[in-house]
Amino acid sequence: MEWLELASTYAPAAPDQLSAYDSFRLWADHNRTWIIFVQLIIVYYLGFATRWRMPILKTLLLYVLLFMGALIFAILDVQLPVKSALLVAIAILVIVKVRIKPGERESK
Fold this sequence. Notes:
The chain crosses the membrane at residues 31-48, 60-76, 82-100. The chain has a domain at 35-108. Helix content is 69%, strand content 0%. The chain contains four helices and no strands. The protein has helices at 20-30, 32-47, 56-76, 82-107. Helix 2 (32-47) crosses helix 3 and helix 2 (32-47) runs parallel beside helix 4 (82-107). The longest helix is centred in the C-terminal third of the chain and has 26 residues, at 82-107. The chain starts with 19 loop residues before the first helix and ends with a helix.
């Protein structure tokens, strides 16, 4: 799917001898859209989902719209730190979820 591939932003210092870090960065650049798509799904379910189970067509529509957003974010990721910002958002939402859980248990 060449239309999903965007310009790589990482150029290894020694292209003939790739380290593990270089290989990972090249892989992350190649699969930028899919990484952002998975991060968007995690952010949605951690922060915005009121119900975990939705009807199948609503779930399918949600995933299609999230993928369209991932395409836009992948284009922006060439110049902006979108993947890093989504990782920070996931970390904050996990911290909020962990801190809210004990409070909910005490009030019940």
